[in-house]
Amino acid sequence: MANLMADDNWVPTACTLPTVAQPVRRREFDELRRRRRGRVPESATRTRLDLRPDRDVAARAAALAVDETGCCSFFDFHLSIDDGTVALDIGTAPEHQDVLAALTARATSRVGTGS
Fold first, then answer.
1. Which domain range does residue 108 map to?
2. What's this model's pTM, rounded to 2 decimal places?
3. Residues 78, 57: Cα–Cα separation, whole Å
4. Which of 96, 98, 100, 108 is least crowded, fewest Cβ atoms below 10 Å from its Cβ?
5. Close Cβ partners of 104 (under 8 Å, ≥ 6 residues apart)
6. Domain count, the chain
7. Interval 44-91: pLDDT, tens
8. Does 52 map to a domain?
9. Distance in angstroms (rounded) separating the CA atoms of residues 37 and 86
10. Phi and psi of 23, rounded to 5°?
């Protein structure tokens, strides 16, 4: 997985997003990660991004989740807004856990504290 992160080429063949659009989607995820408060890998098939409790951040997370399920149907997203918190849970089937691991690693390595 480290090699996939190093060359930034971790998008699986199951993704139907056109290749030319993939860098844009990565930037969208990076932008969302800049608005995170933390990241909690819950298991090999599920991780959670704790986001800033802001309406624009929640809207961006919802839009990104909708867009991503359109091309990478192996992901599932759950956006929760409760008692001043916003969290985006991302899950996948075991056969795609390496993709989730790369996405989670990117959240940690490419973005600072999220503040």
1. 1-7+37-115
2. 0.71
3. 14
4. 108
5. 39, 41, 47
6. 1
7. 999 888 888 889 989 988 998 898 888 888 889 999 999 888 999 999
8. yes
9. 9
10. -60, -35
